[in-house]
Amino acid sequence: MDIVCFPGQRICAANESTIAGSGTYERLGYIFSSLAGFVETTTQDKNTIINIKSLGNKTVLPVVGDVVTARVEIVNQRFAKCQILCIGDVLLNRPLRGILRKEDVRATDIDRVEMYKNFRPNDIILAKVIPQIELHTFSLSTAENELGVVLAASCNRASNTPMVPISWLEMQCPLTGIKEPRKVAKIMSENSLVKIE
Q1: What pTM value is reported for the model?
Q2: Is the pLDDT of residue 64 over 80?
Q3: 61 within 8 A of 7, measured Cβ to Cβ
Q4: What is the distance, to the nearest Å, from the Cα of residue 148 to the centroid of all Cα atoms in its chain?
Q5: Which residue would you say has higher pLDDT here, 111 or 115?
Q6: Number of other residues whose CB lies within 10 A of the CB of residue 165
Q7: Cβ atoms of 105 and 118 closer than 8 Å
Q8: CA torsion sign, 194 to 184 to 108 to 87?
Q9: Residue 81 Rama label (left phi>0; alpha psi -120 to 50; beta)
Q10: In the prediction, which pLDDT does 192 show?
């Protein structure tokens, strides 16, 4: 008999011989589903691997610690509302709601953060998922050097050219030379990443 599961549903306890596989994640000693589908178990090296077999379009949800790509929709003094477009390298079928609070923008100088000097509507950002505070909205953080704005258009609508980072606090339009404040992500090239195995 097939067991049907939904994203976020607890499937079983995790231990040395029961391991989370594809479509699942482990949290607090339990294995949870990250997809809607059917529970499938496989055995490998005396371990039971729990997988979720999904039919049709996959519904993927981010978990705490995932790096997501999001578009900033609304910015005010206390937070920025975002649409999560990708989880890691997985493009979502439909965007998810995210919120980036003022206190989660930077790791230091939290009291001096001004949201308008860090993000603008339509900026594309990299952010990390942190524990949720609101139901149906994923809490985001850019409090690491590698997180922040990766793509921004100039406020000058005539140019519509992507801005280039000139420091970790500013981006500049290459055509007009106009500088605008942003919390710029320190983008690492794939060649500079070293895998530790």
Answers
A1: 0.67
A2: yes
A3: yes
A4: 11
A5: 115
A6: 18
A7: yes
A8: negative
A9: beta
A10: 46
